[in-house]
Design goal:
2 copies of one chain form a homodimer. The first copy, chain A, is α+β, with helices and mostly antiparallel strands. Chain A contains 12 helices and 16 strands. In chain A, the strands form 3 sheets. In chain A, strands 3, 4, 5, 6, 7, 8, 14, 15 and 16 form a 9-stranded mixed beta sheet that branches. The two termini of chain A are 18 Å apart.
Amino acid sequence: MKINAERLKRHFESMSLIGKIGETGTCRPAHSPEEKQAFELASSWMKEAGMTTRIDNFGNLIGTLKGKKPELPVLMIGSHLDSQPYGGRFDGVAGVLSGIEAVATLTENGITPDRTIEVVSFADEEGWRFNKGLFGSKGILGKNTEEDALRKDKDGLSRLDALKEFGCDVNNFQASVYPEGSIYCYLELHIEQGPVLDIAKKPIGVVTGISGPLWLTVTLKGQAGHTGSVPMPLRKDALLGAAEIIVALNRIATQVKENPTVGTVATINVFPASRNIIAEEVAFTVDLRDIDLDRRNRYEKQLYEKIEEITKKNGLTYTIKEDTNSEPRYCADWIKSIITDNCKKLNLDAPELMSGPFHDALPLSYACDYGMIFVRCKDGISHNPLEYASDEDLVMGANVLLGTVMDILKK
Amino acid sequence: MKINAERLKRHFESMSLIGKIGETGTCRPAHSPEEKQAFELASSWMKEAGMTTRIDNFGNLIGTLKGKKPELPVLMIGSHLDSQPYGGRFDGVAGVLSGIEAVATLTENGITPDRTIEVVSFADEEGWRFNKGLFGSKGILGKNTEEDALRKDKDGLSRLDALKEFGCDVNNFQASVYPEGSIYCYLELHIEQGPVLDIAKKPIGVVTGISGPLWLTVTLKGQAGHTGSVPMPLRKDALLGAAEIIVALNRIATQVKENPTVGTVATINVFPASRNIIAEEVAFTVDLRDIDLDRRNRYEKQLYEKIEEITKKNGLTYTIKEDTNSEPRYCADWIKSIITDNCKKLNLDAPELMSGPFHDALPLSYACDYGMIFVRCKDGISHNPLEYASDEDLVMGANVLLGTVMDILKK
C-alpha cells in the first residue's frame, strides 16, 4: 500500500500559493487570514480523507478519523501550517500534508482503524509573531501561561485579540485541552532543516530526539569614551568583551569535534553604536544545544566561567538572563524501530540523527511517546524561500509515515 | 602677567546659558540662531579686548587685534562655539574664550604686538548637523568642496541655505579664503576629551599631534542556517568571524603596551539577527589611530592579513571599505617647546600626549605650524552634558596660552 504521489505533489503546490512571496517563499503568520485560508484548504483535504475537522480555541486545526474503538487514546500526527515571515514551502507543511495523505490512503483502502487518528496543524509553532512558539501544541496539553496569551505582536495586537479575530473562544481554552492519557503516541514528519542528510545523500532520517536549547541573553556594561582619546589599557569596551565571549563559546561547543553540540551567538546589539564611541553596553543571545544534557550543563558552566573571566579582565559588569532552558527529549525506541523497519521495507538506508530545532513534538513528548521522520532538504537551508525538498523525497517520507501508522495501529 | 581669572569664569558662565539644555548641557548647532547669539556675545568680549570683529562667508567669527606691522602673517588662535546636540559647556568654548582672554590681557597691559593676532570661532567644527565637520577651518583654506556646501541637515535644509539665513554671502566664499602664507602659526586650547590627564592628575597637557584615524567598514558574508541543525564544522558563521577579527584587532593595537595606538570596533550589524539563525552577513566599523603613521600602516596590514586568515578559516567572503584615511599631523616642535616652557614657569608638570579626536587645528596644520594645549576634563567625558573642566584648570590653561602667545610674538 502506497500513498498517492501525484495527489501529495498537488497538495504541496496548492498550499504553496497561500501567503506566497516571491517565486518560492511563504509568509503565513500565526493566527492570520493566510493561516485561516491554509486551514480551509487543508480542512477540505481532511474531509476528502474521511476526517471530520474543527479549529480549537488555541487556533489548532484538527482532523479526526474516528476509530472503531473511540475510547482508545488517539494516534496523533501533526506539524504546522504557519511559516516564518520570510520562509519556505515545506517547513511544517510537509508534516501536515503527509499526515493527511496517510489517512487518505487508509480510507481509500477501506481501512477503519480501531484507534482514532487525528491530524493536527498546530497554531504558532514558529513563534516569531509573538516572540514565543509552540503555542498550539503546548495549549492542548494545558501548558500555556496567561502571559503567553497576552503577548503582543509588533503592531501591538495581543495574541488573545488575534485568536478572537481568528474565531476562537478565548474564554474557554480549557475545552481544547486533551485529558491526560488521551493521546497514545505522536508522529511528526518534518524537513531536516539542516544539512546532515543532504551531505550524507540520504533522503530520510530517523530522529533520535530533540536536543534542548538553552537560550541566554547576556548583557555587558562597560564605559563609553572617544575611540581616539581613551588609551587601550584604560578601556572598558563592552563589544570587545562580547567578541571574546563569542569566540570562547565557539571553543567550548567544539572542544570535542565529533560531538553534535552546537553553540551560537546570532544577535548582538551595541549602545551607543557610534563608530567613534567605545561600546558602553552590548547585549547578545546565546543558543547552546546538545542531545546530552549532562554535557550541555557542563558546557554551560564553562561558558559562565568564561563570561566571569572575560568581563573581569575587561572591567565590565554583566547580567545573564535565561530565556529558555529545555532538556533533550528522546524519541521512543519502539517507534524509532518501526520507522527504521519501514525505511528498510522501502530500501532506504535511513541514518539516525538528532533534531537541533524544536518541533511540536517537543511539548507532545511530555504527554506521550513520540517519533519523528526527517526528510532531506537541499543544502540544509530552511526558514528561507530557498528551502527545498524534492517531490521524490517527500513521497518517500509520506510512505514511511504511512507504514509507521499502519504498524502502530496493529499494536 | 596673568589673565583675569574672574572674568574668564564669568565668560564661561555667560556662554553656558546660550543653547543651555538641562543643568549643564549645551545644544548650539552650527549656523544656528544659538550660534549667532554666542557669536554676538563673544564678539562683544572681543571688542572689549580691543579687537575688530567680523563674520566671514563660511560663518566663522573672526576677531582681529591689528598689529603694528599688519603685513606680517597673523598669529591665529581658534576653536569653536558650536556644540554637539547633547553636548557640554567646554568643548570648543574653552579655546575661543581663553584666546579672547589672552588678547584682552595683552591689551590691558598696553601691549600692541607687531604681528596681527586673530581669534577665531570656526563654523561647524562638530559636523553632526550636516554629517561633516571642520567646515569653517577648511573653508578659510579653500579646502571645501561644492558637495560640502550642498549637504542637507535632517530637516532638508542645505548648508548653503543655513549660511544664507546666518547672513553669509554664499556667492563669495573666495573672499573669505586666507591667501597662502598669510597665517604665521595656529594655537588651540581644548579640553582633552579623554581621561589621560585626569588619571595622571595633571591639569595641562602638551599635544604632540592629532593622530589620523583610519576608518574601515568590514562586511563578512557567510551562510544562514538553523542554530540547532547545522553542525559546527559545516558552518559559515559571519558573527563568529567578526568576533575573531575584533579580538585580533585588539591584539594588534595592544601588541606594544606602551604605544598610544588605539584600535576599536564600536558598531556591528548582523543579518538576519534572529537568535536561532546563524548570522549570514555582518558589517562592522574599524577605527585605528596612531600618532606614528608607519606603525599604523603596519598594523593595518596585520589587520588585513588577519581578516584574510579568519574569513578563510570560517568559510566567509569579505569586503573592506575605506571610509577615512587621515594621516597624523604633528605639532611644531618649536611651539611645543614654548608651551612646555610656559607650563614650567607656572610650576606645571605638563605631560605630552597625542590627540585622538580631530580639531580645527587639523586643517590648519596644512597651512602653518601649530600647537595645542589640552586642559584636563573629568573622567575623560565629553560630547555629553556631564563634560566638566574646573575653573582652576581652565585659568591655568589660559595662562599657558597667554605665555605662549607672548613668547611667539617675541620671535
